[in-house]
Amino acid sequence: xxxxxxxxxxxxxxxxxxxxxxxxxxxxxxxxxxxxxxxxxxxxxxxxxxxxxxxxxxxxxxxxxxxxxxxxxxxxxxxxxxxxxxxxxxxxxxxxxxxxxxxxxxxxxxxxxxxxxxxxxxxxxxxxxxxxxxxxxxxxxxxxxxxxxxxxxxxxxxxxxxxxxxxxxxxxxxxxxxxxxxxxxxxxxxxxxxxxxxxxxxxxxxxxxxxxxxxxxxxxxxxxxxxxxxxxxxxxxxxxxxxxxxxxxxxxxxxxxxxxxxxxxxxxxxxxxxxxxxxxxxxxxxxxxxxxxxxxxxxxxxxxxxxxxxxxxxxxxxxxxxxxxxxxxxxxxxxxxxxxxxxxxxxxxxxxxxxxxxxxxxxxxxxxxxxxxxxxxxxxxxxxxxxxxxxxxxxxxxxxxxxxxxxxxxxxxxxxxxxxxxxxxxxxxxxxxxxxxxxxxxxxxxxxxxxxxxxxxxxxxxxxxxxxxxxxxxxxxxxxxxxxxxxxxxxxxxxxxxxxxxxxxxxxxxxxxxxxxxxxxxxxxxxxxxxxxxxxxxxxxxxxxxxxxxxxxxxxxxxxxxxxxxxxxxxxxxxxxxxxxxxxxxxxxxxxxxxxxxxxxxxxxxxxxxxxxxxxxxxxxxxxxxxxxxxxxxxxxxxxxxxxxxxxxxxxxxxxxxxxxxxxxxxxxxxxxxxxxxxxxxxxxxxxxxxxxxxxxxxxxxxxxxxxxxxxxxxxxxxxxxxxxxxxxxxxxxxxxxxxxxxxxxxxxxxxxxxxxxxxxxxxxxxxxxxxxxxxxxxxxxxxxxxxxxxxxxxxxxxxxxxxxxxxxxxxxxxxxxxxxxxxxxxxxxxxxxxxxxxxxxxxxxxxxxxxxxxxxxxxxxxxxxxxxxxxxxxxxxxxxxxxxxxxxxxxxxxxxxxxxxxxxxxxxxxxxxxxxxxxxxx
Length: 923
Ligand code: BGC
Known about the structure:
Blueprint: H1 2-21, E1 33-37, E2 45-47, E3 53-57, E4 67-73, H2 76-81, E5 86-87, E6 91-92, E7 99-100, E8 111-119, E9 132-136, E10 148-150, E11 158-159, E12 165-166, E13 170-178, E14 182-192, E15 194-199, E16 202-203, E17 219-226, E18 234-243, H3 245-248, E19 265-274, E20 279-283, E21 289-291, E22 296-300, E23 304-308, E24 327-328, E25 330-332, E26 339-342, E27 348-355, E28 358-360, E29 368-382, E30 385-386, E31 391-397, E32 399-400, E33 406-407, E34 417-421, E35 426-427, E36 437-445, E37 458-465, E38 471-475, H4 478-492, E39 495-496, E40 498-499, H5 512-525, H6 529-542, H7 569-581, H8 585-603, E41 605-606, E42 609-610, H9 635-656, H10 660-681, H11 695-703, H12 709-725, H13 739-746, H14 750-757, H15 765-770, E43 783-784, E44 788-789, H16 806-814, E45 816-818, E46 825-828, E47 838-845, E48 848-857, E49 860-878, E50 885-887, E51 890-891, E52 899-904, E53 907-922
Helix pairs in contact: 5-7, 6-7, 6-8, 7-8, 8-9, 9-10, 11-12, 11-13
């Protein structure tokens, strides 16, 4: 009793003491982590946005954030003492993503440092996070003192195919002095053309084909590099290699788009800050020198590169070099009409390498073939023995003809050939710089034939935009795993600064239809938030005045034509990104484009029935007329369906943006178009009229929710019938394919979807795998072991569109799907089928890792799920008997972490907070 009394006294005294001294409990919660800005940027320099948004992730053990405190300052010291830019104070909010900056205005070059802390459900604070930072790039043309510089390569250029001017690649250089102690050196740089920069002989970065591809007549992106470590006190030199790239090269079918006047140019501004506070800028101006007599003799995206080692200029980018026969550069001012803006996503880089797996020596004495056993995009690294004066010729191909010869018909007019001319005997170590190829095989001739070819001679340098992998999927089914791998390689093969249709032929363009089809799958696989947001800017800039969206962006076709299902990328992709990231900026930025596209639909409709041109259900198998690539689904039906859908998504976007009236307006428009659609294309029995009844026709109507309830039910049955007629095969092209899994899933027909997915015969996903595919193919029958290649030269073996089924694999086989934007609420509901005994997926969502892993052993179904912090999940359990389910070691009926919210149709759904769940179900 006495003891108790003493304890009570001590407790009361300390409480009182605490009250008087206002002592607080020390924060014990671990800090927030993974601090990012905007679309996932980590400590960016040369950043593009002066009003960024802030995001962080909570430690795994935290279920919920109830408040946050964010501080932003112009130096790390001020951040702790007196944040001079922004201090939010404690904000009661669960929001941990995209908090918009509302602090002091920031200008070009400004730096900011920031950190955050949060409070959990019990109102306990975390410790402060680590400090993150950002530095802005040059945000306005006025920030540039530099001028465009380069040689006039037009006058002595070769006329190539038809009217193409081939610009000889040039080398530009300048020497300068660093005469005081340096604190920092920032290089701001871009080009008309593509460049690679060097300081004192060292490459300034690993970026490839910089600055990438934007609508150059409106906007060119600049890059920022911290080059402090490359400089030294005394004499220094800066240099650039410069080639045509997309800006001055040939694109499409022998066309020059922007390069009709002038020659490639560089814009470079090196800003030095000395310790004494003084500054010095080394800018591109008329003091620079240039030459076209460097070793890169030729470089074109489609055609390849020629490197002549006899032209090597050792040390040309160092201050020890004597630039004897170099000329003075031409100088041009910045144009007002072209905005130079910081790049808003990551440059292309070499992301991985592929070794040669097999060497094939054809009997006919032609070149030796190196097989990487994986179709890829990038360049080869060649470490090949050569004899002085000989020319190494490297050709590429995605696959071989059955007789072992090279299949290059599908490159069409793209020469896709590299040459290296040796200046001495010995082993070269070289890769091309200003071209890229889509290939699996490299054929070499012209090497030192006294040496036996070795696998080390050729390595594939795989290049794509520098994003991280975020999602993984695997299962007990080998071919499904191969399909997942092919989907991934399809993305790697076509995310080359912009989303392209294919990486190998004379095309490689930003086709809008292909992009809208693949966006959800791509977002699961990779952190492509910034990649898409950036391309959407390009799309906005490419929109025609009448609201039309071109076939490709950047718009190099310039034909003022539109296609339904293609232009709809303008509404579908922003919505896809928003639902998967919760980033409302993507809706804000693109809302006007969405609206204008909807009006464009409307302007080409009669009584709400679309009269718009369409590529249709592109490459649908078994079309009535095989030469017609557009499929059998009525163009009007497709156009009207997309018109309704575009209006629907725009109304949803308006709702998110708080635009109530516009939400209503577009919702009404959607309803009106849907009604017109139903009466024009469906009879009372839910059957297609006024057009061919195809799988895709039903899929569009059902997925876009265009039919009344009774007709929907009937149409569903007709769709099932169509599938049955095709012996449970798909009959869909580009537009129908992504919808097929979604519709069947919504109908509860997962078994059927498994059957279609696991079909081995044409047309199916496994069909191409059975024919040796290591990427997604453009056609369901691009190649068959029996019949060889599809006779059409439009036959890419690296075309991502059909990879859209990836979405269903993660969302249903593994079961991870967002229910609320950004996966704030998640549905984890795998449905096993197709004889699979296990599957798993992980996804690094904006809130943290989501995991769903299941396996069947005997009579037991095991399912492990991870729900990240600050989210909740609806977890589905396949059982109708709570007694037979064990969650985290306890019977579901005693489960205290979540609540059973549904027990229907053999599926029990529980709502759970973040955490790890281990479920066993006795079947
Ligand atoms: C591209 C496609 C594109 C199509 C338009 C083709 O040349 O490669 O992927 O969507 O044209 O129909």
